[in-house]
Amino acid sequence: MLKAIYPGSFDPVTYGHLDVIRRSCKIVDELIVGVLNNNAKMPLFSAEERVKMLEEVTKDLTNVKIVLFNGLLIDFARQQGAAVVIRGLRAITDFEYELQMSQTNHKLEPGVETMFLTTSIEYSYLSSTTVKEIAAFGGDISQFVPEAVAVELEKKMKAKRRV
């Protein structure tokens, strides 16, 4: 049984993330979407909210499991019994960073391989940061995120504007 992890902060999950998730779950027996709870970052959504949104938008994918994690990715991979880490690439700049992380992870745990998937062309420009910026100014984000995520993002932005 081939088990893989697709890690990220998913703040919020976009159609680009879902593209990688949907394609990955066809390649492996079990895909664990690892939601990083990174205390060094100030995410818009709590880790629990990000997990809930991912569970909602992947509920039709029977071999996908959403799991919150802290710390090193390689430790999480060991805990989950995963042999593969999946990373999405949008551009060459992503590759430079991801290659360095892949090589570091392989040095720490030679038994875990990294597999890169290029993002489908229609999502190659898309990032969570861009989506949050558009939403902050009241722009239409429906073409970038699933409806359930758009609803949650709009609620967050309205609450921020009230503060």
Helix and strand topology:
Layout: E1 3-8, H1 15-24, E2 30-36, H2 47-57, E3 64-69, H3 73-80, E4 84-89, H4 92-108, E5 113-118, H5 128-136, H6 147-162
Parallel strand pairs: 1-2, 1-4, 2-3, 4-5
Summed up:
The protein has 163 residues and is of the alpha/beta class. It is 44% helix and 19% strand. Strand 1 (3-8), helix 1 and strand 2 (30-36) form a beta-alpha-beta unit.
Question: What does this protein look like?
Answer:
ATP binds at residues 9-10, 17, 88-90, 98, 123-129. Reversibly transfers an adenylyl group from ATP to 4'-phosphopantetheine, yielding dephospho-CoA (dPCoA) and pyrophosphate. Keywords: ATP-binding, Coenzyme A biosynthesis, Cytoplasm, Magnesium, Nucleotide-binding, Nucleotidyltransferase, Transferase. The protein has 163 residues and is of the alpha/beta class. The chain has one domain (3-124). 44% of the residues lie in helices and 19% in strands. It has a 5-stranded parallel sheet with strand order 3-2-1-4-5, with helices on both faces. Strand 1, helix 1 (15-24) and strand 2 (30-36) form a beta-alpha-beta unit. It is globular, with a radius of gyration of 16 Å. The mean pLDDT is 94.
Order of helices and strands: EHEHEHEHEHH
**Share of helical residues:** 40-55%
Sheet-strand content, in percent, reads 15-25%
| Termini Cα gap | 49 Å
Sequence stretches where pLDDT stays below 50 over 5 or more residues: none
SS-based class: alpha/beta
| Backbone shape | globular
Mean pLDDT, all residues: 94
Instruction: Write down how many β-strands occur, each being a DSSP E stretch of 2 or more residues.
Output: 5
Major sheet details = 5 strands, parallel
Give the radius of gyration.
Answer: 16 Å
Number of helices: 6
Total domain count:
1
* Largest sheet strand order: 3-2-1-4-5
